[in-house]
Amino acid sequence: MFPIKLRKVSGRVIRLAVAGGVSAVAAIMGLVMQTGTPSEAAAVPTSVVQVASATGPNTVNASGLPTAPSALSTPFPVQTVAFTLSEDRPTAQMPSEEPVPSLGCDISVEAEATIAALVDLTIRASCMPEARVAIEHAGLRFHEVLNADGELILSVPALDEFAQFSVEFPNGTTSVAEAAVPSLVFYDRVAVQWLGETGLQIHALEFDADYGTDGHIWYGAPRDLTAVIGGKGGFLMRLGSGNSEISRMAEVYTFPTGNPNRDGRVALSVEAEVNGANCNKRIEADTIEVHGGGDKITNQFDIAMPDCGATGDFLVLKNLLQDLTIAQN
User: Fold this and answer.
1) Across the beta sheet with 188-195, what order do the strands follow?
2) Strand 140-145 to strand 132-137: parallel, antiparallel, or no bridges (unpaired)?
């Protein structure tokens, strides 16, 4: 078991919004008007409309004024108008859509070792713009998204001196690239990886630094690879694109143990920020450690997150990662 403690962080506010939908139902009323006597209207079938003449017999009395006609003694002439409902059906099916011809797709993955034991990956798939790809290297797994031209260039920290990278595309195609990274022996690396919105982070406190100072390296203050020049300190990289329940993400912290500019210690911990996506849930993750290019040390863990009332706080997981002992040569 590893100890867990809760670290309060002020100034964090999570706002939840609930959106509701409203549906409306419209009713349509039909109006049928008929004219004529009550007996005639009653005899008309529902599919027939009765149209009566607008004129009728009039008489004139002795005063010269017209008298009302006797409507009941002389019925109005009635004209029947019948409406026919069409029951025609299409005589043929609509032509089916022609399938789009499958065009060739040039897929390529290239790997090139660079400074600080990093590898530049160049991924090209012109027929898959903005596609999500799965990248795997020495047990490290994460998702990335190609650009609108179906390309992606990114740097990945090597975990093997003979580094192999596999890239899986949405159509099931997998491409592999390799690169030799002999400079890995000069670095110590630790990684944590997860699936979904776990809120996990690596925190490195270099040479007894306090939280929020220059020696506190984490996602909010990751530094860049220039920190290793002269052995001054380490840097952190986050790998992966998108925060969703199906996205794999990873963080990797690197320190130049082969050429430090002073003695000391780097205290390492994994922390989990409580948020609306992980509160009151159980989360799982893996850690990977490589010291001086040696064998990898892996570990799996899971933790039960606090309820949502603790949103914005941090769980500090001790002893998941080995602290680094730094000694000048």
Assistant:
1) 235-239, 248-255, 188-195, 282-291, 296-304
2) antiparallel
Total of domains in the chain:
1
Please choose, from the candidates 241, 239, 252, the residue with its C-alpha nearest in 3D space to the C-alpha of residue 147. Answer: 241
pLDDT digits (tens, 9 = 90+) for 25-59: 333 333 333 344 444 444 444 444 444 444 444 54
Q: What is the pLDDT of residue 45?
A: 45
Q: Domain range spanning residue 152?
A: 4-8+105-326
Contact partners, residue 7, CB within 8 Å, separation at least 6:
271, 313, 314, 315, 316
